[in-house]
């Protein structure tokens, strides 16, 4: 049985203490602190430790004593009115105006249309969202990390750009939370390959990307101004499209895995911070303005990108070009304070990393990397470039190295994008890759081949250079291969069972169709060639007997003079 712990804290000038059962839900713990502070349900609480850092109010709160009291503050008293006022939203005004409209419509038409009731419901829903403080959990309250799958939308090839309204709403949230200090547990969690991206909104992911630059000391080393970094991240977010897989969330996941690998293999020590800066920034930019249709489609359809880049990695070249086009804006250029030679090195490394994500080059890059692993030299420029490429490739296709509840939704997103492309290719009369055809591929069959022949060799080669990676990224991939292999076998067994059942049912209902040969019609018989006019065919036994007879007469290939 878990032991209760006593937490000491101050609220204003008053000293308080609460007893917490570690098995209690986080909500009960928060309510206990709320009662001690005599705070209203709509108030937001912040808890500070002795170092003035915000800590999560949860059952995992570290135990302290009377000399190391936490400080509890009610930082949003009257949250509803204060928050709405700060956001410039006046729900009462909206409700009053809607009531006037409702009354006017009722007087003029004698009936209230259903759309008015819908509007009223939306206003009430909006009010509830604003009055609920759960969405402000990043202010220091405990964030419930329960699984939440991303809602996917129908993929429309012609409408993949974010609306300006959506972009501005995300930017407003980001600006509001940009002054928040991310807690140490979250910062450490961000370094782990098991990080769950589905628990974070767009603005929060932007904040976490910024934290990567801070914790890697890239801000101070390369003199990156915070306002410029904020502008850069906003420009990046604006230029990721609303496609099922290659979107901003994917960009975050790739950057987060690159960030995790950086800490796991101590990349700053082995390569230096300049290459780390290039790696992290490449991961963030590697799929900018992705249209949701791969290189094969671009080339086969003769798109503008394929024509511009002569069918050679058109998407990867485009992603690179968009990235450096963003950096041309001085207000977004996070490299503006480095000298020309340093910028040239960063640019070269970024181009190498992004172009390496073209899967058409997979075997080439992997083969070269495998050949140098036994004698890898961190001072050899060519070896370092190959390592950067492999790190980028591993990060780009690393979903299967994550827990199943994190990885599987990404597979659904990828198949949605694949199927959308193959449907379009069929309509346009273009070649369709079998692994993208919804009529030929299943979830387990798509994974078994990909993991066995693409992921495992790549992850094994990197783990052979850095053995400590095996438990973090290689073992999870092996487990997923076992999982999907078993699932694929179950699917195949079920398919065979159904085919057998169908055949059995056909036999039971129409046995004559299976047991008796069909009698040919007179027309079919007349169409057949007459048997006596056909040369007789030797059976296998007859041929064997003839050969034996020849051998008995002493005739062989050697003395017969015949050609083989």
Total strands = 5
Sequence stretches where pLDDT stays below 50 over 5 or more residues: 77-89, 130-155, 531-540, 553-564
Number of helices: 25
Shape: globular
Let me know the average pLDDT: 83
Give me the side-by-side strand order of the main sheet. Answer: 2-1-5-3-4
Terminal-residue CA separation? 85 Å
Instruction: From the alpha carbons, calculate the radius of gyration and give it in angstroms.
Output: 33 Å
Largest sheet: 5 strands, mixed
Commentary on this structure:
- The protein is mostly helical and 564 residues long.
- The chain has 25 helices and 5 strands.
- It has helices at residues 26-36, 79-87, 91-109, 114-131, 164-177, 184-189, 202-215, 218-221, 226-238, 248-264, 267-270, 273-285, 295-301, 304-308, 314-327, 340-355, 362-372, 381-396, 404-428, 443-465, 470-509, 511-515, 522-527, 540-552, 557-560; strands at 5-11, 14-20, 45-48, 54-55, 70-74.
- Strands 2-1-5-3-4 form a 5-stranded mixed sheet, covered by helices on one side.
- The radius of gyration is 33 Å and the shape is globular.
- 26% of the residues are buried.
- Residues 77-89, 130-155, 531-540 and 553-564 have low confidence and may be disordered.
């Amino acid at each position: 049985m878990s032991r209760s712990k006593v937490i000491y804290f101050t609220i204003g000038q008053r000293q308080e203490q609460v007893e917490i059962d570690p098995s209690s839900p986080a909500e009960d713990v928060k309510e206990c602190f709320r009662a001690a502070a005599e705070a209203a349900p709509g108030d937001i609480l912040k808890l500070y430790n002795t170092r003035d850092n915000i800590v999560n109010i949860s059952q995992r709160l570290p135990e302290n004593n009377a000399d190391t009291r936490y400080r509890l503050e009610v930082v949003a008293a009257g949250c509803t009115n204060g928050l709405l006022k700060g956001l410039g939203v006046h729900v009462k005004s909206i409700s009053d105006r809607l009531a006037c409209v409702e009354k006017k419509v009722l007087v003029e038409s004698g009936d209230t249309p259903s759309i008015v009731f819908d509007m009223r419901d939306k206003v009430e829903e909006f009010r509830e969202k604003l009055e609920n403080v759960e969405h402000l959990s990043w202010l220091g309250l405990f964030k419930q990390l329960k699984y939440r799958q991303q809602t996917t939308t129908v993929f429309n090839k012609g409408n993949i750009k974010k609306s300006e309204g959506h972009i501005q709403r995300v930017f407003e949230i980001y600006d509001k939370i940009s002054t928040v200090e991310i807690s140490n547990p979250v910062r450490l969690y961000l370094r782990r390959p098991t990080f769950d991206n589905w628990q974070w909104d767009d603005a929060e992911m932007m904040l976490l990307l910024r934290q990567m630059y801070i914790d890697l000391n890239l801000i101070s080393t390369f003199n990156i101004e915070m306002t410029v970094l904020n502008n850069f991240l906003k420009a990046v977010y604006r230029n990721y499209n609303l496609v099922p897989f290659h979107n901003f969330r994917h960009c975050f996941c790739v950057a987060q895995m690159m960030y995790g690998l950086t800490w796991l293999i101590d990349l700053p020590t082995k390569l230096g911070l300049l290459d780390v800066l290039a790696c992290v920034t490449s991961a963030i930019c590697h799929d900018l303005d992705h249209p949701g249709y791969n290189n094969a489609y671009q080339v086969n359809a003769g798109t503008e990108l394929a024509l511009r880049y002569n069918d050679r990695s058109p998407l990867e070249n485009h992603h690179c070009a968009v990235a450096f086009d963003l950096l041309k804006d001085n207000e977004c250029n996070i490299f503006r304070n480095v000298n020309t030679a340093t910028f040239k090195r960063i640019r070269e490394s970024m181009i190498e990393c992004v172009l390496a994500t073209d899967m058409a080059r997979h075997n080439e890059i992997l083969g070269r990397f495998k050949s140098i692993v036994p004698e890898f030299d961190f001072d050899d420029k060519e070896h370092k470039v190959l390592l950067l490429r492999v790190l980028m490739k591993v990060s780009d296709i690393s979903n299967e190295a994550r827990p199943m509840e994190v990885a599987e939704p990404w597979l659904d997103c990828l198949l949605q994008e694949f199927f959308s492309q193959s449907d379009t290719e069929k309509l346009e009369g273009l070649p369709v890759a079998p692994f993208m055809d919804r009529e030929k591929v299943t979830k387990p069959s798509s994974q078994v081949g990909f993991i066995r022949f693409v992921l495992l060799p790549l992850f094994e080669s990197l783990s052979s250079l850095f053995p400590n990676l095996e438990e973090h990224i290689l073992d999870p991939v092996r487990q997923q291969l076992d999982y999907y292999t078993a699932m694929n076998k179950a699917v195949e067994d079920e398919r065979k069972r159904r085919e057998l059942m169908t055949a059995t049912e056909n036999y039971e209902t129409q046995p004559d169709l299976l047991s008796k040969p069909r009698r040919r019609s007179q027309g079919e018989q007349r169409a057949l060639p007459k048997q006596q006019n056909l040369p007789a065919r030797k059976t296998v036994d007859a041929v064997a007997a003839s050969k034996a007879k020849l051998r008995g007469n002493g005739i062989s290939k050697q003395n017969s003079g015949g050609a083989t």
